[in-house]
Design brief:
- By secondary structure, the protein is mainly alpha-helical.
- The protein has helices at residues 2-9, 12-24, 28-39, 69-82, 86-93, 96-99, 103-119, 123-136, 153-160.
- The radius of gyration is 24 Å and the shape is elongated.
Length: 168
């Protein structure tokens, strides 16, 4: 409810009327969130008072955080990967929003791109995605549970290159 009203609140002439309606409906918590959304500052709130007949009322969900274009593209790409839509994941993870974003975002996208290539039997492209990750960050690594995976473990090790030999 608040998220949908946020743009309306930004127009000061509507804020007062909307705030009054929220207050009168016993939604002080939502009013505080609305004030915070508009002003960018936390609002002092008092505990909500019970409303007669509202024992089974479901509290309003917290507003969803606003994601940057890079974060949104990365989330959507990983969601596609998790749903098994590997080709669309590869496309989304290769978007300019990610390519022009942070190094951490690019590394995460390259990792899931490599995974997507590996699970679709494109070993060369899988290895090349890992190689790009190592060029971006030589310290790039997989999570402990991702090492040794039967589909991408070998491609990851090949991309990483030979382990430094121990000096004698």
């Amino acid at each position: 409810m608040i998220l949908g009203m946020k743009k309306s609140f930004q127009k000061s002439h509507l804020f007062g009327a909307a705030a009054a309606l929220l207050f009168l409906s016993g939604c002080e918590t939502q009013l505080g969130a609305a004030v915070s959304a508009v002003t960018g500052k936390p609002a002092a709130t008092t505990p909500a008072k019970p409303v007669a007949g509202a024992q089974n009322a479901v509290p309003a969900p917290a507003p969803a955080p606003q994601l940057s274009p890079e974060q949104l593209a990365l989330k959507e790409g990983i969601d596609l990967y998790n749903k098994g839509d590997f080709n669309d994941a590869i496309k989304r993870l290769g978007s300019s929003d990610i390519a022009n974003g942070s190094r951490a975002g690019q590394l995460s996208a390259l990792k899931y791109t490599a995974f997507s290539y590996c699970v679709t039997n494109r070993a060369t492209l899988c290895r090349q995605s890992f190689e790009k990750a190592f060029k971006l960050d030589p310290a790039f690594d997989l999570a402990p549970g991702e090492h040794g995976h039967p589909l991408w473990g070998k491609a990851f090790l090949r991309a990483k290159g030979p382990a430094p030999s121990a000096k004698k």
